Amino acid sequence: MSSKITHAASQSFAQKFLNKETFKYIFTTHFWGPVSNFGIPIAAVLDIKNKPADTISGPMTAALIVYSAVFMRFSVAVTPKNYLLFGCHLINEFAQVSQGFRYVNYHYLTDNSNSTKK
Questions:
Q1: pLDDT band for position 104 (50/70/90)?
Q2: Per-residue confidence at 112, pLDDT binned at 50, 70, 90?
Q3: Which regions span the lipid bilayer (predicted)?
Q4: DSSP, residue by residue, the chain
């Protein structure tokens, strides 16, 4: 009984997702652009815990916040809407805002007089 259900579920999945339209989409820039762009938010998320706050670039973080906001808007303004691109930049927006808070906290809200400045 359960193998029939599993077979039916896998057949349904294959019919719904493994079709001509899916493969056509996978070979477009609408897919590969956001996929290749995911390196930025992945690096930003990893930097939240691994990068010391004194090495964060405030201007670059601000630029990436604006960049992701613009591309989130762009991703839903084009036809067809590119939700993969939107998700990529949404993740990056949260990661960069987090880095921005760390930057502001380190440089403006805490006393770092004991730390060595290079």
A1: very high
A2: confident
A3: none
A4: -HHHHHHHHHHHHHHHHSSHHHHHHHTSHHHHHHHHHTHHHHHHHHHHHHS-GGG--HHHHHHHHHHHHHHHHHHHHSSS--HHHHHHHHHHHHHHHHHHHHHHIIIIIS--TTSPP-
* Cβ atoms of 72 and 86 closer than 8 Å: yes
The neighbour count for residue 49, using CB atoms within 10 Å, is 6
pLDDT at 118: 47
How far is residue 55 from each of residues 6, 10, 28, 35, 79, measured CA to CA in Å?
A: 51, 49, 37, 27, 39
